[in-house]
Amino acid sequence: MKGITKRWVLNTFGVILIILFVLIAAFAAIVQSFYYNGIFQTLNGRSSELVNMFNEKGRFTDTARDYVENFPDKELMELMVIDDSGKPVITSTGFTPEKDQTMPDYTAALDSESNYADWHGKISSGENVMALTRVITDRNGKQLGAIRYVVSLEEADRKIFISITLVCLIGILIMFFIFISSTYFLGSIVRPVREISETAKRIAQGDFEARIDKFYDDEIGDLCDTINYMAGELGTADRMKNDFISSVSHELRTPLTAIKGWAETMQLDGFQDRKTLEKGMNIIIKETERLNGIVEEVLDFSRIQQDRMVLIMDKTDILAELDESIYMQKERANSENKHIVYEEPEMLPPVLGDRNRLRQVFINIIDNALKYSSTDGVVNVGVELEGTDIVITISDNGCGIPAADLPKVKQKFYKANQTVRGSGIGLAVADEIVKLHNGTLDIDSTENVGTTVTIVLPTIQEKKEADETEE
To answer: How far apart are CA 210 and CA 204, in angstroms?
Structure first.
């Protein structure tokens, strides 16, 4: 017995047991008091008859003898007549009284101002009795003798014992039913918790297909649903991570293969073709830049995950950065027979931002637009001022994103289309950079129609107004 069961036995079952024990003890005391008090009241009532009787008659002994002989409750109690010297002289049983028996009630009655006292205990024979003695005096207060009433408590004790036994049996039955119901209840908690624990261990060891059967539609059931959901999400994250590793490995392998191939070619004996040499060096430089971009993207993602990305914030001309980003993608678009359409506005307010990081966002979004566009595809770039925000829209007429994948495309490692190159973290990095500039990046897409990315960045004027409001 351990865990929840042990705590329940010690804390709950133990408390209930103590409460029942206290209640039974209190019941026993009340029942005993009820019976004993009833007997005492009977004895006290009988003894009250003696006052007038002995005051009206003559000799104490004769009167006492008549009283004993005519006493109607001889079967219920024993009467004993005690003379003025303290010796028993008559009993209602007809037997000679024991002269050496102790009579605490008689002794107490002699010292009492009310001339009577009661006592209960065991007599020399071992019988449990209750006794009441009333001292008889004449009109001058002289002691004439005493009458002692003795009642056996054996019958009362038997009734008390039966009552207590019945209550104890009821208490045992109550404890039994509590134990049975609680055992079932504890089982309904412990069994699912054990299964949850075992399943959690399997999940921790990498078995993301493990699931918990839902036992009840309550908090335990909610916990089962949550853990099952967690396992599903961990499985998805694990698959995305593996896909990311595979994608990055492929992305790294492709330029490395090209670099290695051209380097080996240029090492061949007799290699003198200047034109081929220049082509090879250009490819090596281009692929090296591509490698550097992949590594930087991964490093940026790592920095964002660890909250270590530092932005160099300065007044930035957003149009200049966007124009340079488009220019850097123009050659690629032309080589792939794709088109970038951009009409630059005359003037826009500056933003407070990191120019290199903002350029990185624009390049990433335009790169994605070209990547997912087919031959002769068109990428439209638009910029406008809405209030105090600059809104940049980059749209394409490519393959689009399925509705089921759209909410997840900004998640780390997620790739909606596994057939297209890329690590799956570019959008996640871009989204985090825009957030660090107090802006938003939203994606709207329709499958087989195209995708639109909207970037909203606050201008410096808006930031100043916000600062004045805070002050």
So the answer is: 10
